[in-house]
Amino acid sequence: MRDHEVLAAFERIYRADVGAITRFFARRCAEPQVVADLTADTFVRAMTSFATFDARRGTATSWLYGIARHTFAAHLERSARIRDVALKAGGRRELDGDELAELEARIDAERSSRALLARLAELPELEREAVELVHLCGLSPKEAAEALGVPRGAMRTRLYRATARLRAVVDDEVEAR
């Protein structure tokens, strides 16, 4: 593929998935600048590794969610190590009013999803991520399995277990009322 064809293919993927990846981070972060930075970092990582993307191994969307998960994990590790320094550090482009308003709206729109993620916190990590990717991000179980790097059968099992546990929590809450 020629350079301009590669760029065009990546642009199509970017345009198709930038909103979903931004929502992925908006569910995890309430700070618009952090959401913007993580989204940008994800696409920079995707662009630099685009040559390794193989559509036969999975969809571009599941590939991007895998990159987004790693980007967020790296962000959490950095934040845990240098929380105070990171708050004081400049070196990032400040958002203009329109960008800030758009990201605040996306973050507000994901408020209920953040609440759900908080409730999912009691689930084992892979079950929680499986529920999020399938039920919040709209990936198929196959795509979620690809993004998480687990076999499809394991994904089905994780989704079943997570759904059963969540159903039990909701049933307990209904009985408590």
Can you walk through the features of this model?
The longest helix has 29 residues. The termini are far apart. The protein is built from eight helices and no strands. The mean pLDDT is 84. α1 runs antiparallel to α2 and α1 packs across α3. The radius of gyration is 18 Å and the shape is globular. It has two domains: 109 residues, Rna Polymerase Sigma Factor, Chain: A (Orthogonal Bundle); 67 residues, Winged helix-like DNA-binding domain superfamily/Winged helix DNA-binding domain (Arc Repressor Mutant, subunit A), CATH 1.10.10. With 177 residues, it is mainly alpha-helical.
**Which series of helices and strands comes N to C?**
HHHHHHHH
What is the number of E strands?
Answer: 0
Kindly provide the name of the CATH class of the largest domain. Mainly Alpha
What is the molecular shape?
globular
Assigned CATH architecture of the largest domain = Orthogonal Bundle
**Helix amount, in percent?**
over 70%
Number of domains: 2
Assign the CATH topology of the largest domain. Rna Polymerase Sigma Factor, Chain: A
Main β sheet profile: none
Average predicted confidence as pLDDT:
84
**Compute the gyration radius: what is it?**
18 Å
* Derived structural class: mainly alpha
Uncertain segments of ≥5 residues (pLDDT<50)? Answer: none
End-to-end distance: 61 Å
Query: What percentage of amino acids are in beta strands?
Result: under 5%
Number of helices: 8
